[in-house]
From TrEMBL, chain A:
One of its GO terms (biological process) is protein export from nucleus. The gene is Cse1l. GO terms for molecular function: nuclear export signal receptor activity; small GTPase binding. Keywords: Cytoplasm, Nucleus, Protein transport, Transport. The keyword Transport applies. SMART domains: IBN_N. Its main location: cytoplasm. This is Exportin-2. It is found in: Cytoplasm; Nucleus. It comes from Aramus guarauna (Limpkin).
TrEMBL record, chain B:
Residues 1-53 form the IBB domain. GO terms for cellular component: cytoplasm; nucleus. This is Importin subunit alpha-5. Keywords: Protein transport, Repeat, Transport.
Length: 975, 481
């Protein structure tokens, strides 16, 4: 592409089209740009446009396109990778680097930002070696006195240097930093000093101050990056300059810089926040050198906290500042800065208490954005909030001053509660703060699963609970003071391990009652608290709260839970659904009377949400609840399975027909569960579905594979004979599925699950004609891509085959594929790899299978295979006695780590649809070691003398010792 | 026992235990100021000149005479009047001995260095020899360029021959000059060694050598042993080692201090030091209260335990583990750091050595350091814990957790250092592996959550460093979801 007006015109038109809302116009334009971006001069055309175009939109659009182009193409991925050619020719690269800095600096801010990003992307690759004059070019601009230009330079420097904050120390990195320091540190320091001076000369000029403060923020950020890896000599020598000025800036205020916005932080706040970070960096990493300055910063930051208001815009500053104090007060040698009683009192009074107050913004979130409120309050995603920072400070102070701090706060808690008592409707926020204070004071360690696990003993939690929490929850109106109700429920939740059980039992009806509260937060908390209480463990690993204790409340609990799902805003409330699931699981057969109504409501819900599934957790717990209903009911009355099928199949059919992808794996799981409930032959309704399950499209979605395999396994378990007799023509389809799965490294274990079920359940004659083909397929995969996972599954399979069809059959089928194949499999796979098999059942299958090969396979005794007999026995003893070999070759580390195979289809998505671990060997062999001893004994009786002689010649001593142990335990001897 | 015997077959598979040991220098670029308490590699001789300035008034005459301009100096030095030569040389030396801003560059620019070197050979004029030697010593004490000027003036052979001067003060001054040259770096160090500096230098050490002189000799010897890239020739070190070992027994703390600066280096060098049987003495010196003694002794032992398991065992047998606790609790951050570094390398050993570390009660100070130490020391302590969890048996790891390591370790996930964070995350993974073997995964999960570790690990999933973020994600996915 030439740098011609015509090309500029063309490009302008296409850029304009990329902004079109109509995809029919937009997409082809985007495609066109992509197709020409490899041409020479393309980036230069863009740069020309963003500089000279008449239309502002085109300028901006060109700058964004340019930035994205650089991002995609500047980095040369690898000269060796052929399909990733270098799209930017060398002359364009040189031209870009020569022009981009001045261009960036002379552009309006919107474009400057894009170009600055582009520079840092280029810099990441080319700086410093291939762009040696970048730094000098930038530093020279500091002299310009034009702060628009200076800020452009600073912003670019910031994006170039900020990676120093997270990269690992290395020679390369530190060489670069040293270079940057040499060129940049002094000019930056001078600029810093000059800017601060300008701030005082322009103290009355609002617009000048804004620009200058933007510079200071960037300078403070650069300070952070440049000082992050280690304390540079230059900054150590100039610490006085930097720290004195930082300190002054922390204490600075200027009316002109205050903003009216309540939410968005202003320049002053951003600068002070960054300074807090800088001080924290020095305090943490360079304590020795920073010590002389630290007390001053503590005082300044503390004063800052005392004088900063409650508005949201100060949140980041306040939480950074509090976190700074929290980290300092934990350090033994700064203890003295805090230990004075007056200091402590004033920190508690002026820093901690005000930041624990419930603010207008919190109240708003409580009412209008309850989901966010719950997430922050309940799930601890409150890392940057003021309350959280204040809590951390309380905990930090408690490290050295637990007694005094608790004393001071007890006084506050009491006075706040008194305030509340005087006039609850006006002063309810005081009580809220009191509860929050008690919570943070009392909790030393907390987990989601158990709530508070360690409490400060100075607070009497039960007393507080009885006197101040229960009364609120007992009040006649569930809708009065919703925030206090939520506080009270949360108190139960987090102190559930400290409050005695009888108090919890008193609370349960109160919680059930609050499921009816209108406030989303309140009824959600009630549901969540019940769910947590129901999972608590008592002695003997049973639940703490028993079904018998819950008996009086079953009906009202279920009614209120389902009614809560109809309250506005909670139709897909995951906490309520989870509470439903947990209640079912706790109450067990006491829910049976309510099942007809329950299952109707659940299916209606299912039908409704299947139109547009949007809450994955809600959906998950809903399916879990359905599974529980089925299990509990059918356990008492197996025949009830029919009525569930009647209620559910209609919805399931709709889900399958409408291809609701999120739900299909669940549907398969529920169907598996239902099918397994049948005691007799498989019902015809299932058989009608069978051919559809083998359709290739279903198997293309990876999420379907585990539940579908599980469902097919259920078919084979229950209806192998029906399939053999009535659907024999479907067997090739079934094997087709197996063949498809086995070919994939990610899904091969699923293929083996299916194959194992076929071998275990199908009548042998029905699969006879396919057996050899199956083995050939396995060998092909073994040859093409052998992985540890495949080997493990393969070993389990051949041993299962051996158990089912006999050792001789195994030997024959191998040798029929190729002579002496059996010996090769023994020598190259079974003996060296058996140690890798994992899982109890899997190991047992292998042990029994190998025992059969050793003792029931004549060719092992009298052919050339005989030399493998002792090594095989030795490997078997290793399997019994040595730890599992879980080494994985390096190149396999990145294959689907997440799906670890087991003999069972381990798709545990639905816990309550899972089946018990299936042991195909089962009662046949209880103790595989004894079984080995007995089998050897039998063998030795058949050919006396042979066995002991084979043992004595080549079995190693340690293994022999173990074997003797087995023989003794089985009370047999070898002849 | 049998069980652990069998476990051993599978422990640390694929991991090279030696790779855990970390040599002192990871990066050769330094951003920091050079360490203040490191031994000084070059010294200017000013203390003597101060003494001279306070000489009795009666000798003031000499001072007056020596006030000469630079031009006069050049003329006199290059002239043939021996009296003037002496005066000019003395004037030069006095200028160079000035407390503040000695005019080294100007003197070099005068071009008189070759003449001064020549004076060194005037055996019949001891005062001139001495003044020239002193002046050159002070020039060589400056920057590398300054030292270079002296060497290129041909001073090395002259000074070496002066070592055998009958006048002790001249020979002492030569020792000093040679120390400055050797301290410049490996190039001149080896140049000296190649000129056979060692035998005459060692010959000066005798039971009657005065302490002051002995200090200088020791310092020069230590400079001949120091610096790397390359290390000093092995046979040179072997020659000096016996004498240094002797000097280490001296009661003067400066002599001890310098004699402890044994060579850093590869395992074969460590072996030479170990073979001298000096480790017990070094350990003894580590326990001394004086910083200048303790520091180099600790460094030397720290270097030894970067070696093989056997070499590390020799240090353990010498009693290093008994001394480390108090060093880990030392008030000086640098000592804490060196001690923790030493400990981390012992923890990188086989489980028998880890067991000794437990038996000698090193875990409590380690945990304390992790909790309250200076950040530099905390970083090393993190490595110590990481190595412990990599090589320790399950039982040992349990012991580690019981000693309370988890809380401070998890707190350090807030550290502003990506590498430290990554090492902690790896350590947590190791702990989980051990917990899995004991079937205690759930308990460890709870413990980590209780100690606010979970939320810290969760927060690290948004860390800008890719490896950190992946390690955090991996732990969350594996154990907390």
């Amino acid at each position: 592409m030439e740098l011609s007006d015509a090309n500029l015109q063309t490009l302008t038109e296409y850029l304009k089209k990329t902004l079109d809302p109509d995809p029919a116009i937009r997409r082809p334009a985007e495609k066109f740009l992509e197709s020409v971006e490899g041409s020479q001069n393309y980036p230069l055309l863009l740069l020309t446009l963003l500089e000279k175009s008449q239309e502002n939109v085109i300028k901006v659009c060109a700058s964004v396109t340019f930035k994205n182009y650089i991002k995609r193409n500047w980095r040369i991925v690898g000269i060796l990778v052929e399909d990733e050619p270098n799209k930017i020719c060398e002359s364009d690269r040189i031209a870009i680097k020569a022009n981009i800095v001045p261009l960036m600096l002379s552009s309006p801010e919107q474009i400057q930002k894009q170009l600055s990003d582009a520079i840092s992307i280029i810099g990441r690759e080319d700086f410093p070696q291939k762009w040696p004059d970048l730094l000098t070019e930038m530093v020279n601009r500091f002299q310009s006195g034009d702060f628009h230009v200076i800020n452009g330079v600073l912003r670019t420097a910031h994006s170039l240097f900020k990676r120093y904050r997270h990269e690992f120390k290395s020679n390369e990195l530190w060489t670069e930093i040293k270079l940057v320091l040499d060129a940049f540190a002094l000019p930056l320091t001078n600029l810093f000093k000059a800017t601060i001076e300008l701030c005082s000369t322009h103290a009355n000029d609002a617009s000048a101050l804004k620009v200058l403060f933007s510079s200071l923020i960037l300078i403070a950020k650069l300070f952070y990056s440049l000082n992050f890896q280690d304390l540079p000599e230059f900054f150590e020598d100039n610490m006085e300059t930097w720290m004195t000025n930082f300190h002054t800036l922390l204490t600075l205020d200027n009316k002109l810089l205050q903003t009216d916005d309540e939410e968005e932080a202003g320049l002053l706040e951003l600068l002070k926040s960054q300074i807090c970070d800088n001080a924290a960096l020095y305090a943490q990493k360079y304590d020795e050198e920073f010590q002389p300055y630290l007390p001053r910063f503590v005082t300044a930051i503390w004063n800052l906290l005392v004088t900063t208001g409650q508005e949201v815009k100060y949140d980041l500053l306040v939480s950074n500042a509090i976190q700074f104090l929290a980290s300092v007060c934990e350090r033994p040698h700064y203890k003295h800065l805090f230990e004075d009683q007056n200091t402590l009192t004033s920190i508690c009074e002026k820093v901690i208490v005000p930041n624990m107050e419930f603010r207008a913004a919190d109240e708003e979130a409580f009412e209008d954005n309850s989901e966010e409120y719950i997430r922050r309050d309940l799930e601890g995603s409150d890392i940057d909030t003021r309350r959280r920072a204040a809590c951390d400070l309380v905990r930090g102070l408690c490290k050295f001053f637990e007694g005094p701090v608790t004393g001071i706060f007890s006084g506050y808690v009491n006075s706040m509660l008194q305030e509340y008592a005087k006039n609850p409707s006006v002063n309810w926020k005081h009580k809220d703060a009191a509860i929050y204070l008690v919570t943070s004071l009392a909790s030393k360690a907390q987990t989601q699963k158990h709530g508070i696990t360690q409490a400060n003993e100075l607070v009497n939690l039960t007393e507080f609970f009885v006197n101040h929490i229960q009364p609120d929850l007992k009040s006649a109106s569930v809708n009065e003071f919703p925030v206090l109700k939520a506080d009270g429920i949360k108190y139960i939740m987090i102190f559930r391990n400290q409050v005695p059980k009888e108090q919890l039992l008193i609370s349960i009806p109160l919680l059930i009652n609050h499921l009816q509260a209108e406030s989303i937060v309140v009824h959600t908390y009630a549901a969540h608290a019940l769910e947590r209480l129901f999972t608590m463990r008592g002695t003997n690993n049973t639940t703490l709260i028993t079904a018998a204790e819950m008996a009086p409340f079953v009906e009202v609990l279920l009614t209120n839970l389902f009614k809560a799902l109809t309250l506005p805003g909670s139709s897909e409330n995951e906490y309520i659904m989870k509470a439903i699931m947990r209640s079912f699981s706790l109450l067990q057969e006491s829910i049976i009377p309510y099942i007809p109504s329950v299952i109707t409501q659940l299916t209606q819900k299912l039908l409704a949400v299947s139109k547009n599934p949007s809450k994955p957790h809600f959906n998950h717990y809903m399916f879990e609840s359905i599974c529980l209903s089925i299990r509990i009911t059918c356990k008492a009355n197996p025949d009830a399975v029919g009525s569930f099928e009647e209620a559910l199949f209609m919805v399931f059919t709709e889900i399958l027909q409408n291809d609701v992808q999120e739900f299909i794996p669940y549907v398969f799981q529920v169907m598996s569960l239902l099918l397994e409930m049948h005691k007799n032959e498989i019902p015809s309704s299932y058989m009608a579905l069978f051919p559809h399950l083998l359709q290739p499209v279903l198997w293309e979605r990876t999420g379907n594979i585990p539940p579908l395999v599980r469902l097919l396994q259920a078919y084979l378990e229950r209806g192998a004979n029906t399939i053999a007799s009535a659907a024999a023509d479907k067997i090739p389809g079934l094997l087709g599925v197996f063949q498809k799965l086995i070919a994939s490294k990610a899904n091969d274990h699923q293929g083996f699950y299916l194959l194992n079920s076929i071998i275990e359940h199908m009548p042998p004659e029905s699969v006879d004609q396919y057996r050899k083909q199956i083995f050939i397929l396995l060998f092909q995969r073994l040859q093409n891509s052998k992985t540890t996972k495949f080997i493990k599954s393969f070993l389990v399979f051949i041993n299962l085959y051996c158990i089912k069809y006999g050792a001789l059959a195994l030997q024959e089928i191998f040798d029929s594929i190729q002579p002496k194949m059996f010996g090769m499999v023994l020598e190259k796979i079974i003996i060296p790899e058996i140690q890798k098999v994992s899982g109890q059942v899997e190991k047992k299958i292998c042990a029994v299978g190998i025992t059969k090969i050793l003792t029931e396979c004549p060719p092992m005794m009298d052919t050339e295979y005989t030399k493998l007999w002792t090594p095989l026995l030795q490997a078997l003893i290793g399997l019994f006695e040595l730890p599992e070999d879980d080494t994985v070759p390096d190149e396999e580390h990145f294959i689907d780590i997440e799906d670890a195979p087991g003999y069972q289809t381990a798709f545990s998505q639905l816990a309550f649809a899972g089946k018990k671990e299936h042991d195909p060997v089962g009662q046949m062999v209880n103790n595989p070691r004894i079984h080995l001893a007995q089998s050897l004994h039998k063998l030795s009786t058949a050919c006396p003398g042979r066995v002991p002689s084979m043992l004595s010649t080549s079995l190693n001593a340690e293994a022999l010792q173990y074997l003797q142990g087995y023989l003794q335990a089985a009370s047999v001897t070898l002849l | 026992n049998e069980h652990s015997e069998r476990m051993k077959k599978f422990k640390n598979k694929g991991k090279d235990a030696a790779a855990l040991r970390r040599q002192r220098v990871e990066v050769s670029i330094e951003l920091r100021k050079t360490k203040k308490d490191e031994q000084i590699l070059k010294r200017r001789s000013i203390s003597l000149s101060l003494m001279e300035e306070t000489l009795p008034l009666g000798e003031d005459k000499r001072n007056e005479i020596t006030q000469m301009s630079l031009e006069e100096i050049v003329e006199a030095v290059n002239g043939s009047n021996t009296e003037l030569q002496l005066q000019a040389t003395q004037a030069t030396r006095r200028m160079l001995s000035r407390q503040k801003d000695p005019p080294i560059n100007q003197i070099i620019e005068l071009g008189i260095i070759p003449r001064l070197v020549e004076f060194l050979n005037h055996a019949d004029q001891a005062p001139l020899q001495f003044e020239a030697a002193w002046a050159l010593t002070n020039i060589a004490s400056g920057t590398s360029d300054h030292t270079k000027a002296v060497v290129e003036g041909g001073a090395i052979p002259a000074f070496i021959s002066l070592l055998s001067s009958p006048h002790m003060h001249i020979s002492e001054q030569s020792v000093w000059a040679l120390g400055n040259i050797a301290g410049d770096g490996p190039l001149y160090r080896d140049a000296l060694i190649n000129c056979n500096v060692i035998p005459p230098l060692l010959a000066l050490v005798s039971p009657v050598t005065p302490v002051g002189f002995l200090r200088n000799i020791t310092w020069t010897l230590s400079n001949l042993c120091r610096n790397k890239n390359p290390y000093p020739p092995l046979d040179a070190v072997k020659k000096m080692l016996p004498v240094l070992i002797c000097l280490m027994q001296h009661e003067d703390k400066e002599i001890i201090s310098d004699s402890c600066y044994l060579t850093d280096g590869s395992n074969d060098r460590i072996q030479i030091v170990v073979d001298t049987g000096i480790l017990p003495r070094l350990v003894q010196l580590m326990a001394r209260p004086e910083l200048i003694v303790m520091t180099p002794a600790l460094r030397a032992i720290g270097n030894v335990v970067t070696g093989t398991d056997e070499q590390t065992q020799a240090a353990i047998d010498a009693g290093v583990l008994a001394v480390l606790p108090s060093l880990l609790r030392h008030v000086k951050p640098t000592i804490q750091k060196e001690a923790a570094w030493t400990l981390s390398n012992i923890a990188a050993g086989p489980c028998q050595q880890i067991q000794q570390l437990i038996t000698c009660r090193l875990l409590p100070p380690l945990v304390e350091l992790l909790d309250k130490g200076d950040f530099k020391a905390q970083k090393e302590a993190v490595w110590a814990v990481a190595n412990f969890t990599t090589g320790g048996t399950v039982e040992q790891v349990v012991e580690l957790i019981q000693s309370g390591v988890l809380k401070p370790l998890l707190n350090l996930l807030l550290a502003k250092d990506s590498k430290t964070i990554l090492v902690i995350l790896d350590t947590i993974s190791n702990l989980f592996l051990a917990a899995e073997k004991l079937g205690e995964t759930e308990r460890l999960c709870l413990l980590v959550e209780e100690l606010d570790g979970l939320e810290k690990i969760e927060a690290l999933q948004t860390h800008d460093n890719n490896m950190v973020y992946r390690a955090a994600l991996n732990i969350i996915e594996k154990y907390f979801s």
